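User: quick one
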Amino acid sequence: MTQPNRIGGGLIDRSKEIKFRFNDKHLKGFEGDTLASALLANGQRLVGRSFKYHRPRGIFTAGSEEPNALVQLRTGAHQEPNTRATMVELFDGLRATSQNHRGSLENDLMAVTDWLSPFLSAGFYYKTFMWPKAFWEKFYEPAIRSSAGLGRLSMKEDPDIYDKGFLHCDLLVIGAGPAGLAAALAAGRTGARVILADEDFQPGGRLTAETLEVDGMAGADWAAQAMAELAAMDNVRVMIRTTVYGAYDHGIYGALERCTDHLADSGGKPRQILWRIYSRRAVLAAGSTERPIAFGNNDRPGVMLAGAVRTYVNRFGVAPGREVAVFTNNDDGWRTAADLTEKGVHVRAVIDCRDRAAPVQLPDVRHIRGASVVDTVGRKGLKSITLTDGQVLPVDCLAVSGGWNPAVHLTCHQRGRPEWRDDINAFVPAGSLPVGMAVAGAANGSMTLAAALAEGRAQAEAQISDLGFTPVQAEAPNAEDEPHEGVAFWYVKESRKRAWLDQQNDVTVKDVKLSHREGYRSVELLKRYTTLGMATDQGKTANIPALAIMAECTGKSIPETGTTIFRPPYTPVPMGALAGRSRGKDFRPYRLTPSHKWAEEHGASFVNVGNWLRAEWYVQGDEKGWRDSVDREAKTTREKVGICDVTTLGKIDIKGRDAGAFLDKVYSNTFSTLKVGKVRYGLMLREDGICYDDGTTARLGENHYVMTTTTANAVLVFRRMEFARQCLWPNMDVHMISTTDGWAQFAVAGPKSRDLLRKVVDKEFDLSNEAFPFMGCGEITVCGGTPARLFRISFSGELAYEIAVPARYGNSMMGVLMEAGKEFGAAPYGTEALGVMRIEKGHATGNELNGQTTAYNIGLGKMVSQKKECIGNVLSQRPEMIREDAVRLMGFRPVDRSKKLIAGSHFINKGEDAVMENDQGWMTSVAFSPNLGHSIGLGFVKRGHERKGEIIRAVSPVHGTEMEVEIVSAHFVDPEGERLRG
Amino acid sequence: MIINHPLLGPRDAAEFVYLGDACLIDRPDWQAEDAMERFHDYGYLRDNPAGEHRELWYHEQGDRSWLVVTRNTLTHEITHVELARDVARERGRDK
Amino acid sequence: MRYSAFRIFMEGLTGNKGWKPAWREPEPKPEYDIVIIGGGGHGLATAYYLSKEFGLRNVAVLEKGWLGSGNIGRNTTIIRSNYLLPGNEPFYEMSMKLWENLEQDTNYNSMVSQRSILNLFHTDGQRDAFVRRGNAMFLAGADAELADAAQLRRELPFLDFDNARFPIKGGLFQRRGGTARHDAVAWGYARGADSRGVDILQNCEVTGMDIENGRIRGVQTSRGPIRAKKVAMCVAGSSGRVAAMAGMRLPIESHVLQAFVSEGLKPVLPGVITFGAGHFYVSQSDKGGLVFGGDIDGYNTYAQRGNLPVVEDVCEGGMAIMPMIGRARLLRSWGGVMDMSMDGTPFIDKTHIDGLYFNGGWCYGGFKATPASGYCYAHLLAKDEPHPVATQMRLDRFRTGNIIDEKGVGNQPNLH
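Assistant: Done. Structure below.
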């Protein structure tokens, strides 16, 4: 027979049968089932194994608080570990497998740990595995690691896609139970923008699980009616399958919508969407979570929360057992007995720890007053329970109710502390709630249906009125205040057997007592020592009973003992959803240079420079390795002419009467004296006197400068200059705009560069050395009227220019320059050849200006003016920063010219040990110089300027090498700079 | 967090870049006798209060205003937002 | 009570009734030789080494909450000594050596696991910097190993080698790096210090300092005044607030660092891995959770919680280097308040007040430093001179210009 435990009623669609698999069993359920309800319908009681003792476990709850029924869902790359069966919507073809066992679920070899449990009490591992020392990493730890953990990742890339979205609303209502529905209706009717979110696929909260009535109709029907009204409102967005998982600052909430998890296949649609909800106000109506009572062997499959039993019976038409007992400390547990009886499921007894009359008259149900369950039998499925008086009741399901905990989690995400209420024996929201949040219904400790409906509406109306909306008069829904009294009763003292608190992590009452005995008495220490509440359910059912037991041990009250801190997320959120689309190639955006297309078409290989992609070299003909290309490019540039896209350098247009004076403040050297039509190299310091950035700045007009920055610092320099402009010298007449993306800029370098440019630059502009000398600049036109800027600056050390055209002409400009250069043998060059030539010229770049070096270190100390106000000049003069024995930037070449220098080598004097005390400095940059025919390097070495010609060792222990190098000038090529002035 | 920009209205804090204590506006006189000591304090010492903090945020993905935001470092509540330029002028940072 | 497998066996046979408290809960004495403010990892380690190595036992540790409630209780548990600068590397290497013998020393299994740490690099410039760093580590007696992409592909095939925005070019391993069970570190030190006579006073918040004529005389606490010859601040995260009681302004800002743990998973990651083109570092705990973090939120705060942009940024970094974690779920997040110093380097120093000492500014790297910080602070307290590996961790280094800035980002704490 299929679905032997299926009974009548429920919110499932019996016309839609669904096939699924659990381990190797082929089973059937109905649309509207969860995996848990379908498993129960099929009589599958054993569904998993606990973390530490590998105890057989069944389904304990009907919601996201589930500690036991965790499965691996789906297969292959879609495999998803630790999924709560209680939250999985059944779909056709679903495959689930149980986890955390060796051998089969039924016969788990690791269950031996259960027999060893006397030796595996809380924190046992802190007291052993210390001898012999070497065994920890070789033996003990690998053994612990392999047995720990729950589900498995597929180790394959997650094939699904995830989206992110942003929503704004006047009122966010969290939870679509009675309080949430009442709140959303009240707010929605005013016309306010409302978002109603619920983690379930079936809105209604407990209304779907109870037999209570609203306005004379079944609760579920009333919920459906309310949903229909909300759905008709344009100003209301209802989000089912959406968990609001975190409350963040200023009314921002994080929410996860599961879009296709209920489908066999996502069909290319996003699996989930991570929403950031900006709310002006919020009503938290998250309901409450039932808690268990701890007694001996209370973890057997078949022991369930009483409210969950009602959910399965009423919502899913499933009897979790055929012979049921109820164990309760409150009136609510009685409703389980009443509902089961009503459905024709036999209730053998209600065991009420209170010695008082029954709150509900159930003539066919035995009432055992003032008694408790002390033990159970049935390793893989409950068979009987034993009571305090020794009598044994044969049952296959025990419904346990220890009272309800308001779901205060989100109220505490900003470190608010809840407050204890003796009348309901639970913590309720208190003190500083997240700004704009109100709480309604069971989440607020209003434990009856009538109270939830009334409070939901009242809180929403209060919130919305504050925002200027007028509540609409409407009749209040009518419901009763069901009995809900209970007593504080946490665990059965008479039990001699282990009584579980945290079922997933296997934390028992004894562990809490041991924790107390050993001095781990604060709630936080208890949690950390025993691992209580650290499992995937975050202790939603475990923490409060454990806290109560610790309070009893210490003789303090529960509120004095305190509570642990609730932190986001409320329920776990997949990493994929949190990352969204920012993964793989889309992890960060690409910035492409204007000539990117041309470069692609001409054999360029690209390299990441920040978010930019730059051509690193161009492969031509039969060049085999990158060195072939780079050597050719560098040589061609030095001998003929080379062209390089240098657009990525930051470009800032600076205008205003005080532009020059302003530059004097942000640069360490002076710019106000620069003549119009001239360019100057500038060095920028941080306020702490360390080199920050360098570049050239041109004066195009009396009140107009154009600054270039390094590629890496383009954004940061602009930011700092805005700081200087707005915060430090706010009255200066100076304005700036970043034009990095506005101008395509090309270096045209080499002895033939002038000849090349003469073919491109319009004839009226004289490029002769006299008219346009080294460090000259001007606004010109090219190609018959296209506006351009020309700078005669040189990074390569050759006669060179940089020419800028509006970015939209960049790609064609590259083509034009190359075409014009054909007769001179021009070659495009990439960042590698650029790097080779700058090392040959001893120019410092990122490896040298690494944020740790001073102007003094790089030999530019004289550029730091002490005669004017500028950023960084004061602190640059601190004694340790201008020590005479400080490192200085020098050039290096291998004594054996055939050797290859290694960047990152450290310098050690000959005859000294390679230890930190003898460290003389380090090699920053190296390259093979095709012009010199050997390896060259730049580096910092102590007192370097006094040590030219000295032989020193460059050691690189990570490569296992060292070599002798000679300290030389950093200017390897044309040290006098004659070429660039030619 | 949401910063209520005085010109642009409420904006997500993710649009901004944070610098630090608004005392960074009060850059010392470089010609003072004890300039080095003053710059040391300016550059390195902070009140770092647990409570109300006036601090500099830069609207980099917006209008590039530097703002002085008064925010509580215990609750993150923002009580006041001003243009840093106005604050700088009020504090006498003239040319 | 000595911990051992034999003891566990005997206790197991007799119902685990014989375990004794790991530490006493003493009443404060009116006076101590040394009062340490802060019962976190560093404070407890200081007390431990004072009592064990320097024979000073008339010592109290004052903790405003429960012991270990500071950042020792909320971090990503990484231990390593892969620093660059001479002011740092010998100190962290000393710490590593103390880690390597910690369990045997304290008789408490803090699960020091030298499962390796790997820093990935993605550009030539990063490689050059890591070579320099690896060599500096060798020069200081530590270990380092440079790996190219091919080797990484063999060792860690699940990293994204083929579809990455910033392709992995290689990495620098420190095989001796790894993780430790953070709470157990605090507990081991607490138990060791307590057994040597140190009073650990929980729920004892310092509310004021008694300073006369430039000399510290004691502290006011929520459990009454306590006199002391020396008072040692050790409250990273709250340094600003405590130092203010002594009228001190510090080169420190308080920032929040969020950290995260996933649901328990069967073993996935062998060691610690850090991303070089984004902010992400991750390891897997012995229980199976992926423990990971990234950048600080970046604004001054004393609230132990952060905001969503950083959460998402961290997870983006994770998915960028190991896209197989997409279906693992983030289970828990937390926020710790960090003493972000002005150059990213901590302080272990005397203050301008006689008898008052300062230990703080650990940024988000304090956990790995716990043993050496405790040892060096104890050395300073006992001998009034800095330990040789901590001579540069001075409060006056910004006056002299001896900045120890590993990242090279300058005097802006939120960038370190």
